[in-house]
User: What shape does this take?
Amino acid sequence: MKKFWKPFVEWVTGSRHNIFERARLKLTGLYIGILAVILVIFSFTLYYSLAKNIRDNFEGNFSDEHAQELAITKTTDRLKTTIFVIDAAVLLLSSGLSYVLAGKTLKPIQEAMEKQKQFTADASHELRTPLAVARTNLEVALREKEWNSENGRALVASAVDEVKLMTKLAEDLLTLAKLEGAERNLTFSKINITEIVEGVVKKMRHLAKERNVLLSFEPSNAVFTHGEALALERLFMNIINNALSFTLVGGAVHVSLYKNHKKAIIRVEDTGVGIAKEDLPRVFERLYRADKARVKSDGAGLGLAIADEIARIHHGSINLESELGKGTIVTIILPAVS
Assistant: This one.
């Protein structure tokens, strides 16, 4: 008995501090309450209807009125007991089903809130680090008794770099906020994807050169889609920049574009560090970065999240294949139009 009682007490105590478990129990109670009301109404209606039929059918079948009344009473009592047992069984079964159904109903909300909490914690962490560095550098500069211009400039420059990181993070967070529900605000038109991708590649060549990475683009015939040019440019820029960031010196990033039936396919293939199998399901999560120690990146982990949101708004998708140490292939699929 103690073995059963202890887990039950722990579950009840834990439920008091778990908002979702309390909500689940309340929702379960609501489901059971509604079903109980329906059962009571149905059972009373059924009982009185059948009891009347029994009484009507028994009348005239007995010479003794007492025997007739006793037979009617026994039959109606048996009917009452049967209905009660069935109702109790239905309520017991429905209690379990209601608890499961309440859990399934609340699960998407719980997952969304957990992701929001994780996102808030990650964002706070991402902001805390550059703030601490900038503050330390500025405090050191202020404490300098004999100002050394070279050392002072280095400290201030470092603080400025951290402010730039925070500004970039704030801008990316604002972009994500704007993209949510952006279908109502964006003006779609027929646009040439080939021109946009080619333009992005040209803009990114200087960055590739700085990092000593070969960036190539395979020319393509014009491929069109319905979309918002600036948003798609941001999508391609984030994907290519991500490929360049995680490709080591001497590596290569190749971009290709083609049309397959009614789909526009954009592939960005790199010879970078790759992504571990356990990290692949999470790469599109906000502020998630897989193993920062393997390669230096200036981003805060929002680039792929923004790209994925833009693709979704354009009724497209992004697929990612990667192997640790062998590189990554990102495939962007968008609806193509003639």
